[in-house]
């Protein structure tokens, strides 16, 4: 059974995925921003898995 909290985390995870894709496709992607976004995405994924 999926909780509201889990749904919210998955939505945030998807948004981060889109932001990473957008940053990657820029002419000069910012490596620091990409690293930060990927860390946030990983933390969310770990939290989702732990549920």
Which sheet architecture does the biggest sheet show? none
- Strand segment count: 0
Shape: elongated
Mean pLDDT: 95
Ranges with pLDDT <50 over ≥5 residues?
none
**End-to-end distance:** 10 Å
If you had to describe this structure to a student in words, what would you say it looks like?
The protein is mainly α and 51 residues long. The N and C termini lie close together (10 Å). The chain has helices at residues 4-24, 31-50. The protein is elongated. The protein has one domain (4-50). InterPro entries: DUF465, DUF465_sf.
Brief overview:
By secondary structure, the protein is mostly helical. It has helices spanning 4-24, 31-50.
Feature tags:
single chain, 51 residues, mainly alpha, DUF465, DUF465 domain-containing protein, DUF465_sf
Secondary-structure topology with pairs:
Layout: H1 4-24, H2 31-50
Helix pairs in contact: 1-2
Protein name: DUF465 domain-containing protein
Organism: Sphingomonas aurantiaca
Pfam families: DUF465
């Amino acid at each position: 059974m999926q909780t509201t909290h889990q749904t919210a985390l998955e939505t945030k995870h998807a948004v981060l995925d889109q932001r990473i894709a957008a940053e990657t496709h820029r002419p000069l992607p910012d490596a620091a921003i990409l690293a930060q976004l990927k860390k946030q995405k990983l933390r969310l994924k770990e939290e989702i898995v732990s549920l």
